[in-house]
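Morning run. Coffee first, then this:
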Amino acid sequence: MKKQRVIVGMSGGVDSSVAAFLLKQQGHDVVGMFMKNWEDDDTDEYCSSRQDFLDAVSVADLLDIPMEAVNFSAEYKDRVFSHFLAEYKAGRTPNPDVLCNAEIKFKAFLDHAQTLGADYIATGHYAQVREVRGIFQLLKGEDGTKDQSYFLHRLNQKQLASTLFPIGHMYKRDIRKIAEEQKLPNFSKKDSTGICFIGERPFREFLNKYLPREPGEIQTPEGKVIGEHMGLMYYTLGQRQGLGIGGVRNGGDEPWFVSAKKMEENILVAVQGHDHPDLLRSSLQASDLTWISGKQPHCNWVYAAKTRYRQPDAPCAIVQLEQDICQVDFAQDQWAVTPGQSVVIYESMVCLGGGVITG
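And here it is:
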């Protein structure tokens, strides 16, 4: 690739730092950009955005590249966080990282970068882009343990055409090695986790600031009361920890798992045993579909799907496909398929797109 002006989203982490280093090494005109997207209770205890910014600046200084900062907090609240709260209020379990990528990192950031004359933006995601006969494909990252294509499945042709993933063909261990060899100040910094741009924090305490707590009964599928929940929004299907269910007479020794939410009655349903039939699904429905190529996939072809991040690929077929709704049937029952999460469809290494699970 000839020399291009590339603006790199630098989070202060090691992945985006090495991405910037590699682009500079390749001879591109590289500019670092730090995005601040959360301002509510932004403290060192949880968000640490100030430290992340300092880490990004330190790397930029070492690489001798310009560093800028931009604030997308208003866009994040409007496009991502409001949806996040609405989904929890409705009893679903959203994936804010998916929407954050589509609306902030590859939309607001991309638009801003292009006003600054960028030919491309780049990030430290573990994914790859390939152009085949004029169509841009999103591929899984080479490191299967770090692949982030699941979170990127809503990207479109325009976004992919303007995006570089410099580390997508590499393994995490090699990223760490490069960072240490180049004496990047954050070479040993641990990977960030938690809600996109909000960070790690006590989840119930955080959510309670925005949504009122509504305690209610925990019941078995037969209607037997076995405990009390703190509010349906705090629980997700398949959850085992934090149910507070003690010994139940004639309940056996197997652990309890959340199997359903009855929103109108404010009842949380729990079952015993990881492989209880109520936790297994042979099919799902999804809406709000997006297809990366702009074309719908074929029905009844054998694909693979993920219904959660890091899940092994599950052989499946799309048996019903309309403009904004589909049904996916699986070769083997899937565990704890959760409304609000994304189902992402693959054909080998190629991510085709997906939708939001509705049932």
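The chain has seven helices and 17 strands. Good start to the day.
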